Amino acid sequence: MAVLTASRNVSVLVASRTKQFLPREHTKKAPHWGAFFVCALLTLLPFEQVSAQEGTCPRLLGGDYARVAHVYDGDTLKLADGSRIRLLGINTPELGRDGRQDQPFARSAAQWLEVHTQGREVYWVQGSGKQDRYGRMLAHVYLPDGRLVAEGLAEAGLGHVLARGVGRNLESCLFKAEARAKRAGKGVWQQGARQASDIRQGGFALVKGRITRVTRTSSGTYMDLDNHLALFLPVELKAQGASGWRRGQLLQARGWIIDRQRRGQTQSSGRQRWLLKITHLRHLQRL
User: Fold this and answer.
1) Highest-confidence range of 10-14, 237-241, 258-262, by mean pLDDT?
2) 155 and 247 assigned to the same domain
3) DSSP string, 135-168
4) Which pTM value belongs to this model?
5) Closest by CA position to 222, among listed 206, 240, 234
6) Which of 59, 83, 139, 251 sits CB 3.0–4.6 Å from 79 for a disulfide?
7) SMART domains attached here (predicted)?
8) Is the per-residue pLDDT at 255 higher than 80?
9) Please, which pLDDT band fits residue 268 given cuts at 50, 70 and 90?
10) The predicted structure's pLDDT at residue 241
11) Into how many domains does the chain fold?
12) Minimal CA–CA distance to 282: which of 233, 249, 246, 209?
């Protein structure tokens, strides 16, 4: 609840500084002359100069404005026209469904997004990936103060940064925000990466382990961690400079783990049940 209160205070402060980005119904028709000149000045400044006070990620061009009607969880929201948006650049903990408990900090992430976006006009830019398998639009969303939502969540330690589909102009600032949260031990960074040998279910995870086997195929490279979890590095990522993997190296990886057995895939000798596909080189790190 302390997080929610603090977020509301920040939202009020931000709204008072950046009235020019709010919907018209939130502005007064006859502002005082002082407020008028402040708003006029901010309107003339480039968006990047204004947003630099609140964050470091640049504003992408080619987007549109829309009001947020509903927040589903920490990384999914609905616009007033009914469009569902999945935020690019961040993955927040899952809220519990079907009798399962919330993951740690899932409720805090959802509250953060609700406080900062619901009922407000935001600027959003659709990503190159268009939609995910659930029919949600993949997009970058910016708060009324010009800050990238994914950066704000990462800075608060309420999710893990994802580089796929983000673009180089946003990768660096997002990982820097995550690094600040990690150094401060905020949110999800109160716990370290999970040991690969402890994986017992699918879903998103930050894992670490030692390479116990390397298998190269025409489609890519498989690296077993702790004789329990297989990482798959597609050949296109190897072509981008990923090489030199060998037994004994300690790695950290992030992504979605799938249960091959649950998917009905046959388990041949030495083939690991758990698989994590690397979708971007920034998701794999030598320790």
Assistant:
1) 258-262
2) no
3) SPEEEEEE-TTS-BHHHHHHHTT-SEE--TTT-H
4) 0.79
5) 234
6) 83
7) SNc
8) yes
9) low
10) 63
11) 2
12) 233
Residue 262 domain boundaries? 194-286
Q: What is the pLDDT of residue 262?
A: 83
Segment 213-231 shows an average pLDDT of 95
Q: Which two tokens stand for residue 180?
A: 């600040």
Residues 32 and 141 reside in one and the same domain: yes
d(Cα 146, Cα 58) in Å, to the nearest integer? Answer: 9
Task: Answer yes or no: do 60 and 136 share one domain.
Answer: yes
Q: Which residue has the tokens 């829309």?
A: 66
Are the C-beta atoms of residues 26 and 14 closer than 8 Å to each other? no
- When pLDDT is averaged across residues 128-155 and rounded to a whole number, the result is 94
Together in a domain, 201 and 120: no
Per the prediction, the chain carries an average pLDDT of: 83
Residue 249: CATH number of its domain: 2.40.50.140
| CA gap 246, 210 in Å, rounded | 10
Identify which of 143, 250, 179 has the alpha carbon closest to the alpha carbon of residue 171: 179
Helices (H), 18-158: 33-44, 47-51, 106-117, 149-155
Specify the long-range contacts of residues 257-260, CB closer than 8 Å, at least 24 apart: 257/199, 257/201, 257/202, 257/203, 257/204, 257/205, 257/207, 257/229, 258/202, 259/201, 259/202
Decide if 209 contacts 196 (C-beta within 8 A): yes
Q: What is the pLDDT of residue 103?
A: 95
Q: Please tell me whether residues 31 and 136 are part of one structural domain.
A: yes
**Cα separation of 286 and 273, whole Å?**
23
- Residues 229/207, Cβ–Cβ less than 8 Å: yes
Residue 153: per-residue pLDDT: 98
